[in-house]
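Re-run with default settings, no changes from the original entry. Doing this only to confirm the output is reproducible before filing.
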Amino acid sequence: MTMRELTQGIKGMFCRQRLLCLLGFLLLVSDTFAQSVSLDSISSRFNRFSKSNLQEKVYLHTDKDLYLAGEIVWFKVYNVGSESNSLLDFSKIAYTEILDQDHKPVMQAKIALDKGTGNGSLHLPGDLSSGTYRIRSYTSWMKNFSADYFFEKPLHIVNTLAKPVRLPTASVRNYDIQFFPEGGSLVEGLASKVGFRVVDDSGRGVDFRGSIVDERNDTITRFRPLKFGIGNFIMETGSNKSYKAVLNLPGGQTRTVDLPQPNKSGFVMSLSETSGKLNVSIAGNTSDAREILLLVHTRQQTRLAEKLRLNEGKAVYQIDKSILGDGISHFTVFSSSGQPVAERLYFKRPSSKLTFTVKPDQLQYGKRKKVTLDLAAITENGAATLAEASVGVYASNGLSSNSTDILNYLWLKSDLRGNIEDPGYYLKNTDPQANEALDNLMLTHGWRRFVWEEAMGGKPAAITFLPEIEGHIISAKLTDSRTNSPAGGIVSYLSVPGKNVRLYTARSNTSGDLKFYTKDIYGPSELVAQTNYKQDSTYHIELLSPFSAKTTNYSLLSDPLTENFKDELLTLSVGNQVQNVYLNEKLRTFYAKPQDSVSFYLKPDKSYLLDNFVRFNTMEEVLREYVLEVPVTRQRDEFSVWVSFKPHYNDTYKNVEPLVLYDGVPVFDRGTKMVKYDPKKVKTIDVLTKKYYQGPVTFNSIINFKSYKNNLPDFQLDSRATVVDYEGTQLRREFYSPVYETEAQAADRLPDFRNLLFWLPDAAIDASGKRKMTFYTSDQKGKYTIVVQGITPSGQPGVASSTFEVK
């Protein structure tokens, strides 16, 4: 089954039955893992799990990595399927956040996705403290899984207008020291390769010398890292022995760390590579070491499932690398009882590559001069290709980059846990040392996107968050205000007052959960959530945040600023202040708000523009005189409005109770408030005379009173209604780029200190494989960096960069 087929299948299921169908699909694998699992069934179970376990990856291309407080962070969102890395038309919203050092959100936005891409911006507050923040992005569907799935990278922010906080310098540096036996465990009497990783408190690898000693302090082996504090050594463990690592660290520190205690029995596995072949060596010293299964998969697509028989506790199997998919493959050994007993990761360098080239028409430019970029996309065989791309041009700075780009993120970081120092190193370099360093990375950062108990059917995935395949889902909690307990089976209404009425309904489940399936709520809005207080008067609705509370448990790599950046920061700071003073309005310009042109009930059967009639002093007179479809009845001081219509041509008129709205907000008092309301504040009255079905509710008819500004003027909502300001899907901000085409434009005295000269998130490349784009330099001299990132329809990511200078 292809990713496209899987996506279409799941989208179809949700369109018909939402969550129930998916849960039923997952429950197909509900056999318990605790029972004996035959080796023959493991592969089929895993394939069945993979087909029903759609995984998304989100990548964010930001215009740069270093920002000043008060600047705008521009970004492009790419959402791909983990199977092929191709753009995935599944989720329609990406949640993007900037978190501070305590994992608290500083800024949040909901970004619309169309066919797997979207773009947005975040205007940083001017009072942000200097420091390393993290920007992350994910979909609603991804919230069902670990936060390690979310895209996350460091964002360096400097507040040049605030005095920097001087943190106390530790007299002794802290080091994180970890050891990773190749197959997962040390086993007595069996030789194992052991990976290790040592980083300092900034998250960067350190150089050191180490040795392994036993309980008698006899030296077993010595070791040192190859790259970024990572390396490996080989050792054989004895019976009833324990081992320690003694490390001589920078600054004269010495640390002694216990190695993992060897198991009495078990399995070990090792991989070695020769002439395009992989040798898998497996050894075991248990009674279960008779027949085993070697399962190999690349991004949950099975590449090999081979039963092996151990001879004297050992087996060697040779694999042709050509059967593996590009990127990370998992090698897992199952014992004869079906238990996973050893696992190892291997990285195969991508064979299919997307090559971007980006060239400016000159290497040097004057101030306010036109720059033309030639962008091209070609495959590994030199053929032109379609590609979705984004391009940024910014003032170069001396701050070291973490080198995260779409290429190394999709191939490496998205499938590995924790920080990777300089991930670009592993894909840019192909020499023997880089290959060994890459294999060490697999030893020390390995993990999988599932647990085998789930894959074998013991624990079906818990689905809490629905995928937003049609639009943003607003979640809420309904409680009984008398007992504060969840209220089930109650219909609730969510309204967005405005010109084009949007009304959503939902019925709470037994846990009091409400799901409102919304569309086209853009920018800041006011939401009104309520129940029918004439029927359900004791309930309270609380709207829930759609942003995830989950966080990763590792610190990001930090890049401390030094005096070397003083002049550059001064230039950036002056430019930022000039931008905010002179171009403030241009920086706050957004594209037109996309929305439906009609209300949720489409075209009414009758619409009355009251200004076309004689204005009466009471709404009762208006309805009785003009709105013939709405008869009014009165009992003492209470009114009731009805909608009168003929069900069929020859039938007599029939009165039915309508849903009464004012600017799209339900009014549940049979019309008393609206009949008593000042008619001069109402512009139009829409009447829908036929039945209308929405979610769990059927309306016999609808009357919608509309004010002139669609803002419920002087109208008192019921005190039990929940009214909140809500930030909908983000409006797209226009990127300001001045044009100096004429001499008069170039002579404009308005200062132009832009350090981000150009940002184009939608730089799609057609079948010719080429695209031109133009922009103008600013008054800020110096070197500028051009970065293009993108991906082909088949899922091949690419990145390129170039530079030019402004004098």
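The domain at 175-258 is CATH 2.60.40.1930 (Immunoglobulin-like). The CA atoms of residues 66 and 140 lie 28 Å apart.
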